[in-house]
Write a structure and sequence with these properties.
Elements (H helix, E strand, L loop, with lengths): L10 H10 L15 H8 L2 H16 L1 H4 L2 H15 L65
Length: about 150
């Protein structure tokens, strides 16, 4: 898809854009910053504006299953142009990462290929494996983040 820097786009161009702006194969991430004039032009056409709102709402209803950051950003920016506010997404923005087993040897310093040196507090001798007594707990992040 060619990107026209002129602010007056034809209806056919805007319709094609509206149908394809969420396809990263047609409009790659490199062009995201140039989409704003298209969003603004669509918002000025009543028919295309209604179609755009419907398309955005459909995406937001299923965004958790797609969860593509780039596409979500495009839809949020488009919604902002159409309505003046960001759409309140339901559900978690980030999925929890759960790791049942961790091999601490994976966390060695790549530069000198040895683990971080820790020393015994009483004797001052280096600990052979300082992460042996590492305990990880599950923590609910929302307990620590202000919702406002």
């Amino acid at each position: 898809m060619d990107f026209d820097t002129n602010s007056s786009f034809g209806t056919e161009t805007l319709t094609t854009f509206l149908n394809n702006f969420d396809d990263l194969n047609l409009i790659s991430e490199n062009y995201t910053e140039f989409l704003l004039p298209y969003f603004e032009a669509i918002s000025k056409d009543n028919k295309l504006r209604r179609l755009a709102k419907k398309k955005c709402k459909n995406y937001f209803e299923r965004w958790v299953s797609t969860n593509d950051k780039e596409i979500s950003t495009r839809y949020q920016e488009f919604w902002f142009i159409l309505n003046g506010t960001f759409y309140e997404l339901e559900g978690n923005l980030f999925h929890n990462l759960i790791i049942n087993e961790v091999d601490i040897k994976e966390y060695e310093n790549v530069l000198n290929n040895q683990a971080k040196k820790e020393f015994e507090p009483d004797t001052g001798k280096p600990l052979p494996n300082p992460l042996n007594n590492l305990i990880l707990e599950e923590v609910e992040v929302t307990d620590y983040v202000d919702a406002s």
